[in-house]
Amino acid sequence: MKNKSPKNLVVNVKNLEVFFKKKQIINNVSFQVYKGEIIGLFGISGAGKTTIIRVLTCQIKKKHWKGIVTVTNITPGKKQNNSKILEKIGYVPQLELLNLYYDLSPLVNVEIFASNYGIKKDNALKIARDLFKILDIPEDTWNNPLKNLSGGEKKRVSMAIGLIHKPSVLFLDEPTTGVDANKRYDILNYLKKLNRKLGTTMFIITHDLEAALVCDKTAILREGKLLEFDTPYKLISSLASDGQLVRFTIENLDEKIIKKIKQYPLCKDISRTGNNVIEVFIQDLEQNYSNLIEYIINNNIKIISMSRDIANFRRYFQLRIKEEEEKEFKEK
Ligand SMILES: Nc1ncnc2c1ncn2[C@@H]1O[C@H](COP(=O)(O)OP(=O)(O)OP(=O)(O)O)[C@@H](O)[C@H]1O
Ligand SMILES: [Mg+2]
Hints:
The chain has 10 helices and 13 strands. It is α/β, with parallel strands linked by helices and about 325 residues long. The protein folds into 2 domains: about 5-230, 3-Layer(aba) Sandwich (Rossmann fold); about 240-330, 2-Layer Sandwich (Alpha-Beta Plaits). The strands form 3 sheets. Strands 5-6-7-3-8-9 form a 6-stranded mixed β-sheet, with helices on both faces. A hairpin with a 4-residue loop joins strand 11 (about 265-270) and strand 12. Helix 3 packs across helix 4 (about 120-135) and helix 3 packs parallel to helix 5 (about 150-160). The protein starts with 8 loop residues before the first strand and ends with a helix.
């Protein structure tokens, strides 16, 4: 698994461009995904995440896009190819879009969706039970009307349905949206568990930057362009001092103080992460850490507390988007 040999290439996208009525939505996007990888697609609203997934899942006509795209070695676009791809992929839509039968039980729901793939009832029920067990869907709900299940349980039933035909690739649109905060981690952990047990390659579209925790690779999209496609670890390490930062709580923090700290000659970036909290990135943090503190104190800025940490993916994402915006601003 996760072996980068050509035979393990599951999704190949080269120079993808998507146009709707002459408006370019996707601009020269390229990436490769190998068997068993979990890919997180991140980007602010309108970046083009859903559009890319719609190309890969055969939902956009070939006349709207250019470039090389293969999914399980087949090019989407032609009718006979699309049906071959659809046999090999699963798709879990957003919660509000789930087209489940709410008066029927989870098991009957699976049976109905399985019959679309020509899977016989006995076999469907066996696969369903196995998946429900992996997903911890309580056994006493399996035969009750789906409408009585909690939001998170419904979401997991929809994941089981997306996996009923044992697809090699599963696409999930916003799997943690509409699920309460603690349950978000559960959903992400279930996805990881399914990925490990079944070897399913996964694409997760999400606004939830913590989902990066379960991703092997993260894609960052902005205005139709792919800014980054790499492991979260590598991306974070590309920040100043390999992503190491100093977090300060500062008395009466304001923009003036932030500006002053920004003027520290080795300062690379500052993020305000709370009313009185900033995270500071400097060059060669190890050597210059005490010098930074001295600079702050000499400028009559009162430090209440401080600690060292490594940037998380959320911070990386914010800084990367900010960098791009500043670049664009300068070009204008
Ligand atoms: N069929 C279409 N016709 C015209 N424009 C479209 C079409 N589909 C998408 N777009 C435009 O393409 C851009 C990208 O849309 P897309 O749905 O891919 O974004 P997204 O990253 O998924 O955003 P969100 O996070 O809000 O779901 C948007 O500006 C959208 O208005
Ligand atoms: Mg979308």
